[in-house]
Amino acid sequence: MGLFDRISRVVRSNVNDMVSKAEDPEKILEQAVIDMQEDLVQLRQAVASAIASQKRSEQQYNQAQTQSNNWQQKAQLALQKGDENLAREALLRKKTHADTATTLRTQLDQQVTQVDTLKRSLIALEGKISEAKTKKDMLRARASAAKAQEQLQNTVGNLGTSSAMAAFERMEEKVLTLEARSQAAAELAGADLESQFARLESGDVDLELEAMKAQMLAPGTPQNQAQLPGTAPAETTPQPKTAASPQDQQVVDAELEDLKKQLDQL
Predict the structure, then answer these.
(1) How far from the centroid of its chain's Cα atoms is residue 248's Cα?
(2) Which ranges are annotated Polar residues under compositional bias (predicted)?
(3) In sequence order, which residues have a C-beta less than 8 Å from that of residue 106 and are 6 or more positions away?
(4) Would you call 64 exposed, middle or buried from its count of C-beta atoms within 10 A (0-12, 13-18, 19+)?
(5) pTM assigned to the model
(6) Which has the higher per-residue pLDDT, 224 or 123?
């Protein structure tokens, strides 16, 4: 293979690649329909010209045929009059027009065939143009849908690694963290509230216990002494006041000391 052939092939391959990349389906289809319509115009002009030529040939054929018939009649008339020379001349003219008519008949038959062929081609081209327009609209819609689908797929593909999706993920994580902190704070607040109520309740118990201690440890009335454990209930009838014996005082002190120990253990 020669150098120039290789260079030519490389150039043609690059040009074809550039053309393929530059081809837009919608524009190419539109241009194809325009080209077909231009061909249709030229074909219609050719059909019109062929029909006009056929009409002229028909007229010439009819004229030649008429002239041939006329000279035939004149030859017969001259022969009837006994003028053979005139009859022979008339027959020569008749033959000339008959030959012309024959030639025109052959040409006319060819023109008729040509016109019929052109008409069929015209009808076929019109049908192809109509079909091409329909297909053009369909292919244009398919091309637009394919472009939209490709753009959508590219957009969806880019969303996986884009900063927008990363921002959504970060914000979702932050919201989850805030929800967890809020839930923990609510639980802690509930625990603190319960502990505060517990402290209040325990404070009331301590105050009541201190009051009971103060009441029990106060120097005694018969009522207080009656509340000491192990002592006999006071008599309903009044008794004369007498001084407590040392032995009785020791018993009372021992009981009070025992009660204090029991209270301290509460």
Answers:
(1) 105
(2) 221-250
(3) none
(4) buried
(5) 0.46
(6) 123
